[in-house]
């Protein structure tokens, strides 16, 4: 009987002591350190270091991406600021200069307002009543020479404009190619500006051609008007009564004696 009571007391004491022995283990933190010799491994510190390294790597990747974008932006800016390697300015200026020289070589009556006014006052005005027949004929011949010179000048300008077409075609092809292969906004803009300059040169040639043709037509019309005026004056002189017929002595055959 005494033995049974002792066993029961021992079991009860063991059961009561078990929670006290397990209590420190259950209350220990989950991030307990583990020792391997003298090296201590802290799982919590390791996890924190891994997270910090991941965030740092992400920031570095973002910085690399930003630098790449900035570098690309600088490259694009450099392309946009690059000048066009081809220039048609000299060719266009030479074409305009050739056409201008043809206009400056206009014969007799040049493209000058004062000279035109002076010529119409002296050569294409009303026929002078006091001018002799020889003077009237000389004036008519001078006006005819002006008309022929104007027609020749118009044809020379036409030939010059036609001669410029081949150079314009070559420059247009080159500029279109430069525009299509432009690497930036500046090159494309410069190619477009040079194409506009080429069109302006073509318009200048067309203007010169119209001016030369108009000058020739105006000289021809002025000559006709002056010829009509001179014809009226010559007819007036022909119809004006003169001294009439005066009889005189005429000897057809010499006397043999």
Describe this structure in words.
- Helix 3 (89-104) runs antiparallel to helix 5 (133-180), helix 3 (89-104) packs parallel to helix 6 (185-239) and helix 5 (133-180) runs antiparallel to helix 6 (185-239).
- This protein has a two-stranded antiparallel ribbon.
- With 257 residues, the chain is mostly helical.
- The protein is rod-shaped, with a radius of gyration of 56 Å.
- Mean pLDDT is 82; it is low at 1-32.
- Helix content is 75%, strand content 2%.
- The protein is built from six helices and two strands, in the order αββααααα.
Topology readout:
Layout: H1 2-26, E1 34-36, E2 39-41, H2 43-81, H3 89-104, H4 113-122, H5 133-180, H6 185-239
Antiparallel strand pairs: 1-2
Helix pairs in contact: 3-5, 3-6, 5-6
Order of helices and strands: HEEHHHHH
**Distance, first to last CA:** 223 Å
Give the overall shape: rod-shaped
Number of helices: 6
Radius of gyration: 56 Å
Query: Unreliable stretches, pLDDT < 50, 5 or more residues?
Result: 1-32
Major sheet strand order: 1-2
Which whole number gives the mean pLDDT? 82
- Could you say which structural class the secondary elements and strand pairing correspond to? mainly alpha
The helical percent reads over 70%
Please indicate the percent range of residues in DSSP E strands (runs of 2 or more). Answer: under 5%
The total of beta strands comes to: 2
Sheet having the most strands: 2 strands, antiparallel
């Amino acid at each position: 009987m005494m033995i049974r009571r002792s066993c029961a007391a021992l079991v009860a004491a063991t059961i009561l002591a078990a929670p006290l022995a397990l209590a420190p283990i259950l209350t220990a933190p989950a991030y307990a350190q583990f020792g391997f010799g003298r090296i201590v491994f802290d799982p919590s510190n390791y996890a924190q270091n891994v997270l910090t390294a991941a965030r740092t790597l992400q920031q570095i990747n973002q910085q690399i991406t930003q630098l790449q974008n900035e570098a690309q932006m600088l490259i694009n800016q450099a392309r946009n600021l690059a000048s066009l390697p081809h220039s048609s300015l000299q060719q266009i200026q030479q074409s305009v200069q050739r056409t201008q020289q043809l206009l400056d070589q206009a014969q007799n009556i040049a493209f000058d307002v004062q000279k035109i006014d002076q010529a119409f006052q002296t050569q294409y005005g009303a026929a002078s009543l006091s001018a002799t027949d020889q003077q009237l004929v000389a004036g008519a011949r001078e006006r005819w020479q002006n008309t022929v010179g104007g027609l020749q000048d118009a044809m020379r300008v036409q030939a010059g404009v036609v001669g410029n077409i081949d150079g314009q075609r070559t420059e247009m092809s080159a500029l279109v190619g430069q525009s299509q292969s432009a690497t930036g906004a500046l090159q494309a803009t410069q190619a477009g500006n040079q194409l506009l300059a080429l069109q302006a040169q073509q318009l200048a040639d067309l203007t010169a051609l119209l001016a030369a043709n108009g000058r020739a037509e105006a000289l021809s019309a002025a000559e006709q008007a002056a010829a009509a005026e001179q014809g009226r004056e010559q007819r007036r002189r022909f119809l004006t009564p003169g001294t009439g017929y005066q009889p005189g002595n005429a000897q057809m055959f010499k006397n043999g004696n």
